[in-house]
Design brief:
The chain is of the alpha/beta class. The chain has helices spanning 159-168, 186-193, 207-219, 254-264, and strands at 2-4, 27-28, 31-35, 42-45, 48-49, 58-62, 66-67, 71-82, 85-96, 100-104, 176-180, 199-204, 226-230, 246-249, 272-276, 287-293, 296-304.
Length: 306
């Protein structure tokens, strides 16, 4: 099974000493070694721009702990000037826990077995020969509604970022916390275990990750305070968040942030919203902080509705 990740979490997380973490599957870090031309290169991993390091031809990154035996795909892009023209090279590369993967962006074509080839374009279906129907066409059966989906390109948010988001949100024991895009429940469970929030609700579209989240809540002995709901995070309504005092947004794309923005603007006065990596369109943040973990920069925004 291979997972990809639009919001890069490739970082060096510290170990978060929480009792519920014992329930997690066996994990280890993956290393990614990237070779670059000796010039002024702008490097991006999963859309996150890294700080330039002029003349550096080899950069090494570590992932957070990943589940052993699973593959994860990272998208890499490098841009530089060559003979007065912009050169852009992109790769999708597979990494695995406990292994080092190399990718050479100096090459026009990289034949490494870890490179994930792009999918070929689908051919249009051939048009069948026209003939009059022998009988009126039957009404097709109604298609059942699609199950809510979430990005398969998920890698857990580093523990440092989880704690940073909760600290910036000023979580108190009296708070009712909603985590939209809660994934494996690391933010929700930490809010209950470490920050003692009165009640925590997590929403995600991936049933398997919610199963892991519930197991971790049981291991941390906070199942009575934490609830996980299966559903499309972008369909969350003001009614769903009626009792929320704090809302945290994670594991979502900029488009999903935009879909949620109209609803978030209507939350009750005093609600605190913490967003990870992306701003909420149309809302003015109260505070913006940047956390650097193993060369990667994580932006965290705080909004306080007035």
């Amino acid at each position: 099974m291979t997972a990809t990740h639009p919001l890069l979490r490739l970082a060096l997380p510290g170990l978060l000493t929480l009792c519920w973490a014992v329930a997690a599957p066996a994990q280890d870090k993956a290393k990614l070694k990237v070779y670059l031309p000796p010039t002024d290169v702008q490097l991006e991993i999963q859309g996150v721009q890294l700080k330039k390091k002029d003349g550096v031809i080899e950069r090494i990154f570590e992932s957070p702990p990943l589940e052993i035996g699973k593959g994860y795909v990272y998208d890499i892009k490098a841009t530089w000037m060559e003979n007065g023209k912009a050169v852009t090279r992109e790769r999708s590369v597979k990494v695995m826990a406990g292994k080092t993967t190399e990718v050479d962006l100096r090459l026009v074509t990289d034949n490494s077995p870890d490179i994930v080839p792009p999918k070929p374009p689908e051919k249009p279906p051939e048009k069948p020969p026209e003939k009059p129907p022998e009988k009126p066409p039957e009404k097709p059966p109604e298609k059942p509604p699609d199950k809510p989906k979430s990005p398969e390109n998920y890698v857990a948010t580093p523990p440092e970022v989880v704690n940073f988001m909760l600290e910036l949100g000023k979580i108190r024991e009296s708070d009712v916390v909603y985590v939209i895009g809660c994934a494996d429940g690391s933010i929700a469970n930490t809010a209950a275990v470490k920050f003692k929030a009165r009640k925590v609700i997590g929403v995600d579209a991936n049933a398997d990750r919610l199963t892991t989240a519930r197991k971790n809540a049981e291991a941390g002995k906070v199942s009575d305070k934490v609830e996980f709901r299966l559903g499309d995070p972008t369909k969350t309504t003001n009614k769903d968040l009626a009792e929320a005092t704090v809302v945290l947004l994670d594991n979502m794309s900029p488009k999903q942030f935009g879909d949620l923005a109209p609803m978030l603007k209507k939350l009750k006065v005093g609600t605190r919203i913490v967003a990870h990596n992306f701003e909420i369109p149309g809302l003015k943040f109260t505070d913006k902080r940047q956390l650097v973990v193993s060369e990667l920069e994580y932006d965290v925004f705080l909004y306080e509705l007035k």
